[in-house]
Design brief:
The protein is α/β, with parallel strands linked by helices. It folds into two domains: about 230 residues, Alpha-Beta Barrel (TIM Barrel); about 110 residues, D-serine dehydratase-like domain (Lyase, Ornithine Decarboxylase, Chain A, domain 1, Beta Barrel), CATH 2.40.37.20. It is built from twelve helices and 19 strands. The strands form three sheets. Strands 1, 12, 13, 14, 15, 16, 17, 18 and 19 form a nine-stranded mixed sheet that branches. Strands 2-3-4-5-6-9-10-11 form an eight-stranded parallel barrel, surrounded by six helices. Strands 7-8 form a two-stranded antiparallel ribbon. The longest helix is centred in the middle third of the chain and has 26 residues. The radius of gyration is 22 Å and the shape is globular.
Length: about 375
Amino acid sequence: MPQPYDRLLAATSSLDTPFAVVDAPALWSNADDLVRRAAGVPIRVASKSVRVRSIVEQTLARDGFAGVMSYSLAESNWLVDQGLDDVLLAYPTTSRQALADLVADDRRRAAITVMVDSTESLDHIDALLGADHPAIRVCIDVDSSLKIGPVHLGVRRSPVHTAEQAGTLAAAIEKRAGFDLVGVMFYDAQIAGLPDSSPAVRLVKKRSAAELLERRTTVVEAVRLHADLEIVNAGGTGSLEVTGLDPSITELTAGSGLFSPVLFDGYDAFESRPAAYFVLSVVRKPAPDIATLFAGGYIASGPTNKNRQPAPTWPEGLSAIGTEGAGEVQSPVKGAAARDLSIGDRVVMRYAKAGEMCERFDQVAVVDADGGVDLVPTYRGEGKNFG
């Protein structure tokens, strides 16, 4: 596969650093591969892993994609106001203003499904809006972690884990005015978000997939006793071909696989192409084999360890200095390749996660196969900050 760096850097040579760049051929190749792996199951686009509205919209225009999974209710309202008509909010909300904006507009209420995981979630919404608010579409978030005795493998999300718990909550929603239960969601972080780094990891993922295949079926059956489900959402970029085999689901979700950040290197089932980068300039040469770059301290969320740092990608052979890492105003890199760098030269970096990178930039330069550039705004560039 030819390296894209010469094309990307030539196309963006007039831009001042730091800036973000997206390789369009890699982006759409990744989109096609997500659809291939989903094997006919529709994919909902995870907006938090993109945060560029035009790219979300262009992805939705492609075969195999349907709907958005948002991360903020304020974002959900905004996306619907921009013309989208199917938004599943992935996390519970406590925003008084966003809830008020939701129920104030019939189109928003019809297009947006809010996530809940307890009757306390419903109580809080009622407390903010009053118990006589118009009906809000809701989805139950079901904890999809693997529990082996006292060991918890996966993220800690919903308190709803079993079919009995899901059925109890569904029954409570059924009896409650102001809420319309239309979906259930299962996010298998210990499968979808975990690279195949060792035999032990592969074993855990295989065991978890088998457990979830059985449990999802029982949960969906329990909830269907109380609701006519439109949405049974599951999976993520790293688990499409596994989760998509479950006949109980109606859709999958993916987002990170579009940009393919560093944390999505190392999966056995697929090899996606890095599509999103940012570019920094050399501003110092404190030693022959060290080049200092301006800015770059864009650390990804999650456990604060080395794999959350951005990775120097081009020229090859550069690495961060362990005692400094990526800094708020300067990021030194070292290696043999640094000897050939001069002040003003550019270094291509990859972000550890998808989407978050775009919170640092007002626009991204989308570069096509022929070197054409389209400068498109990020959420931040459209004046939106959803936390």
